[in-house]
Specification:
The chain is 9% helix and 35% strand. The protein has one helix and five strands. The chain has a five-stranded antiparallel beta sheet. A hairpin with a 2-residue loop joins strand 1 and strand 2. The longest helix is centred in the C-terminal third of the chain and has 7 residues. The N and C termini lie far apart (30 Å).
Length: 75
């Protein structure tokens, strides 16, 4: 998935975990862009105040992040 297509609040899947996209910080000069996600599986790992926020580079997002699958309604 292209990192520029992500919208804040969008749910995505990475390594079998559901994540919520928070924001994208553009890179500057030779530094890559950083994408901020929040995952319930990571909440509390670093203490009770940890809200499960993690970052990924644009490269990792483009290779391993997929949009949340849509469930088709049965008619």
């Amino acid at each position: 998935m292209r990192p520029t297509l992500l919208k804040p609040g969008q749910q995505v899947v990475c390594d079998g975990r559901m994540m919520l996209f928070v924001r994208r910080d553009k890179g500057y000069c030779a530094r890559p862009g950083v994408n901020v996600f929040r995952c319930d599986d990571y909440r509390g790992l670093n203490g009770p105040a940890d809200d499960g926020t993690c970052t990924m580079t644009d490269y990792r997002v483009s290779r391993f992040v997929n949009p949340k699958p849509q469930i088709a309604a049965n008619k």
